[in-house]
From TrEMBL:
Domain (HTH gntR-type): residue spans on this chain: 11-79
Keywords carried by this UniProt record: DNA-binding, Pyridoxal phosphate, Transcription, Transcription regulation
Superkingdom in the source lineage: Bacteria
Family the UniProt entry places it in: In the C-terminal section; belongs to the class-I pyridoxal-phosphate-dependent aminotransferase family.
GO molecular function: DNA binding; DNA-binding transcription factor activity; pyridoxal phosphate binding
Species name: Streptomyces viridochromogenes (strain DSM 40736 / JCM 4977 / BCRC 1201 / Tue 494)
Protein name: Transcriptional regulator
SMART domains, A to Z: HTH_GNTR
Matching InterPro entries: Aminotransferase_I/II_large (IPR004839), HTH_trans_reg/aminotransferase (IPR051446), PyrdxlP-dep_Trfase (IPR015424), PyrdxlP-dep_Trfase_major (IPR015421), Tscrpt_reg_HTH_GntR (IPR000524), WH-like_DNA-bd_sf (IPR036388), WH_DNA-bd_sf (IPR036390)
Amino acid sequence: MDVHVRLDGKRDLSGQIYRQLRAAIHDGLLRPGDPLPPTRELSRRLAVARNTVGVAYERLVAEGYADSRIGSGTRVRATGLPARGATTDTGTTGPGLRPRALWAGLSPWASPETTGATTAAHDFRVGLPDARLFPYDAWRPLIAREMRLSATGGVGYGDPAGHAGLRSALARHLGLSRGVRTRPDDVLVTTGTQQALDLIGRVLLEPGDRVAVEEPGYPPARLPFLAQGADVTGVPVDAEGLLVDAIPPDTRAVYVTPAHQFPLGMPMSLRRRTALLRWARRHGAAVIEDDYDSEFRFGGRPVETLQSLDRDGHVIYVGSFSKVMLPSLRVGYLVAPATLRTALRTAKYTADWHTAVPTQAALARFVDDGLLARHIRRMQHTYAARHRSVTGLLTDHFADRTELVPSAAGLHVTAFTRGRLAEPGAVADLAGRARASGVAVYTLAEVAANRSARAGFVFGYGSISAPDIEPGLFRVFGPPQDL
């Protein structure tokens, strides 16, 4: 790795080299074990005598910053010094730039503990598909082909609205699988659902505008709106979904998960969906429909999307490939009324210009060649079996301490807790013991925006193997005599 050294004038050249290399070591740019450039090479680059560089290296060695061995060159040694700018226990870096106070409240949701991997033997985390069953052999040639085209200059900067082939494929796929009424021009490709929500907020909201969200609801959905200065208000849900009559009249946008309410799991009834659309028309508000895992249904009729019922252009439909494929792909989409098309395209350009073109192009082929539909059919059977296992075990073995929330779709189920486990503190203690025994699990309070939500657990079954479900649940609740 080349090390940047800049010489100013002709005085104290060895000292200048020494100080800049020492600063690179202090800053962590040069790490223990990293080689310093050979003296001959660095002297040639700097147009100075080799001895000038040698003197600087000798000083670094003498002061304990480097080791020099014949035949191995000069390498950085461990100093034990913290890197300049390293964070303290409070997460600050001393005097310097500070973020707006708002971000301190949002930061926990982006922590490594929330977003990172797990080593737990029983993984009940929410919202994760089974990456082990992804058809990598089918995907790899598609992405390799697009990378070859990029390498040969076949692809430049892309359209902010998305790859034309993917937008066409999405319009067909959503029309066939979810009844979404759309044309390719109505589709905008995003870097995941979070960016879709961020773009919608940028286009629709002024600081101080009210956004209504489900309570309990999906916490990360609130973050873009809060970051933009919106007033985010929770609205209660019941067995039919969002209580439309409880939406504040000055609300500018309503975010809902009607096909599979997060985190409780029930679908929004047709009566409630039509009431929400009437409310939006009457108040001139937007309805943001997050159809986050509706591809997987295990009983009952598919729930019609709000977008397919909307005749007045108030619904913005949002989805992603995180649940049906891989979260790491970071590809999502939104379907918006034509009146927002230009503004959303401009907002996307402003945010990051466009989502990765090779990934979009490969995904277009994946959809058009029928590989996505085949993968969904395969995973439908896998997740249905896991859904039956989780719900059956909770009903058969733990009915005295849990109340299962009916759900026939998605990648998780919710169970309220009964008896002495109905206390939030008791559930938190139980979850802590389960984690210590190798179970990754969330309480309802941890995945709901309202931390005072009713006590319970949310069990994801997307990434846990079927044989691990029963022992995992027993590690959470223990044998009957323990409770």
